[in-house]
Amino acid sequence: MDINRVFAGLGGLFGAAGIAAYAAAAHSAEGHMATIAPILFIHAPAFLALSILAKVSRPAYFGAWLLVIGLLFFIGDLVSLDFAGHSLFPFAAPLGGSLLIFSWIVVAATAFKALDFKRLE
């Protein structure tokens, strides 16, 4: 089976980071780890599926990269607040969250043949 190995690897890394965040949340009631953990853990299997879908669909490929950027901004901002005491940059979390919403809409567009920008070869 031909897969996008970058997205498969990111799925594994996001899964591992999600479990680490759950562990951190279990040991501290403070901070954002309880928020971060499920977001990472939910996206991990999505990236495993996108590693297949992105090989045949441009919207899925584009949506997967938007998901990566959105996760880095959203999760990165929360981690920065917890460990450095300040935001990555103003509005990083809202930008990341908005990108996550938009990227899931792009991924959903793969279900509509008219919106598939020709198969990737």
From TrEMBL:
The record, for InterPro entries, names: DUF423
**Which of UniProt's keywords are assigned here?**
Membrane, Transmembrane, Transmembrane helix
One family name in Pfam for this protein: DUF423
Q: Which spans are transmembrane here?
A: 35-53, 60-79, 91-112
Name the record gives this protein: Uncharacterized membrane protein YgdD (TMEM256/DUF423 family)
What species is given as this protein's source?
Phyllobacterium trifolii
